[in-house]
Amino acid sequence: MRSRLPMRLLVALVCVATVLVGCSKKTVSKDELRAVTSEVTAAAQKIAGKNSRIEVRPQPPSGAAGIPAGPGVDDIYISLSDASEAGAMKTAIDGIAARHGLSVSASAAGSVARYDYSLNGARTHTIHVVTPLGPRAAARKPPAVKPLAPHARNGGPRLAIIIDDIGYDRAEDDSALALNFPVTLSVLPHLPLSGEIAEEAHRRGDQVMLHLPMQSEGEDAKAETVELRVGMNAAQVNEILSGALDTVPHVVGVNNHQGSLATSNSALMNELMPALRQRGLFFIDSRTEKTTVAYDAAKKAGVRAASRKVFLDDLATREAVIAQLKLAAKDAQRDGSAIAIGHPKPATVAALAEEAPKLESTGIDLVFASDLVQ
Predict the structure, then answer these.
(1) Which superfamily does 30-130 belong to?
(2) What's the whole-model pTM score?
């Protein structure tokens, strides 16, 4: 009997270890995930009241190797009405994590604080807390007056940077608003944030464009709910344009969102351009398709226009964006001006914040899109 006792003890220890390992790998259930989300949103509503903007975006399980998949991740976006509320929000976030046995890590970029909840290495929530930015327009220094280069009697090379797809994501949009140089923000219409972001951009001294959805090539292309489509007549085009402008205030110009099929269709572009001319709006051809006729149609209709030279973030890494920005700068130096288009992706904004202001030391003026249309 004595010889068997160690074996029994060993078996018992193995069983206990198995239970402990099982406990250590515990994942959050779907109900528990949503309960935590409800606590976070309730805390935000209590702290910021009716002026807070809260959005929850459930994400599917990632299925990363070696980590329990769990029910997925809840991304929570909280826009506070006053920067003084940020401290109370952080305290609430830390308290909720402690009550539920979750780890919490924090990071910040500009006016956006990020909190990641996790259990046993598996992320359960990412909470983005956006605080209002202070006015920036008054703090901007006027562009330095540079000596005229021999080949540029009207000034040196100029570069306009347009940030497309504004209006989807408050945290990303605020990071673009925080860029401390002239930025042209192209806002998508008919989104919950369209008007709010356009107002904020205008207040800060940035320029606002309408990012007008247009039909793309291919049966698999994702159509927007409201977009310009091939075959529309002048009345239909005018109705869509008017409706879009109603949701985006302070618009001074338009560029196309997608639109590889639409911008290649002369009939549709010939209906759009007179509607822009009547409203005094310029047009930037994003050139999503090589066969585009949009710029030519604009010039034919007497609409001030220009075309995009460089896309900044087809590959959204910091290094790739910096390389594209340098390419845009070379285009500006060679041709006198250039337009670069990017999106409010974290890598894009980080690269622009670091590198774009350095261009002025090379003699390039950062300007608004309206400065480059003809």
Answers:
(1) Beta Polymerase, domain 2 (3.30.460.10)
(2) 0.64
